[in-house]
Amino acid sequence: LYLDRPLAPGQTVRLDPPQAHYLFSVMRRAPGDAVEVFDSRTGTYAAAVAEASRKAVSLTVGDRTRPLRTPPDLWLVFAPIKKARTDFIVEKAAELGACRILPVQTDHTNADRIRRDRLQAHAIEAAEQCGGNFVPEVADIVRLSDLLDGWTDRRLMFCDETLSGVFAALPDERGPWAILIGPEGGFSDAERARLRAMPQSHPVSLGPRILRADTAAVAALTLWQSTLGD
Ligand code: SAM
């Protein structure tokens, strides 16, 4: 269970209503029952239910059982698509070890708003489900051009659907990276020209077929992890 506050042994934490409902009514946990908790800051802890009722559930935090395991410094930058597919992208990015998820508005993006809290909840669920103890942050949506204006030396795996052909190997360069996936309509010519000209950018093909953006995100994350991940 993910708790959005720094944890320490001996602490008593009162759960917020959705988590209290989940533990009491769905999981039917009673006082004394063991629960594993993590905070995405210090690690995973053994905890026990101290109080459980319809009104309140609180836990006593015990020893730390695992230190925090942070994924490599990899961002997934993507243009949101239909709701269910955007949810899928966020979930898979959390499972496949992105450390930050940044939705961007591009020239051809249809969705110019996102429900950040909903997407963050998907990232939390995915982290809980895959046994990790790190939750990637879902950032607010920004314009791609604004993001690029402030770009640092972070390397960019620019997934360019117009590069037909086989996947070109990524350079064996460790350090901060980002993967960029475009919208259903692809990147505009102006965006593509700018992205190709950036010295940090490594334009890549994900193969000879045009993939849907959600498939492309999974493929790119997997390829990056297999080359540069840990
Ligand atoms: N509308 C575009 C077209 O028909 O050419 C397709 C865009 S594709 C559905 C969405 C995004 O997935 C692209 O912008 C790109 O980032 C990524 N993508 C899909 N297939 C790819 C490929 N074969 N190589 C590299 N990137 C790909």
Would you tell me the structural class of the helices and strands?
A: alpha/beta
CATH topology of the largest domain: Alpha/beta knot
Bound molecules: S-adenosylmethionine
Share of helix, binned: 25-40%
- In CATH, the architecture of the largest domain is 3-Layer(aba) Sandwich
Number of helices: 6
N-to-C series of helices and strands: EHEEEEHEHEEHEEHEH
* Beta-strand content: 25-35%
Question: What summary fits the major beta sheet?
Answer: 7 strands, parallel
Which CATH class of the largest domain?
A: Alpha Beta
- CATH homologous superfamily designation of the largest domain: SPOUT methyltransferase, trefoil knot domain
Distance between the termini: 24 Å
Summarize this entry quickly.
With 230 residues, this protein is of the alpha/beta class. The protein contains six helices and eleven strands. It folds into two domains: 12-66, Hypothetical PUA domain-like, domain 1 (Ribosomal Protein L25, Chain P), CATH 2.40.240.20; 74-228, Alpha/beta knot.
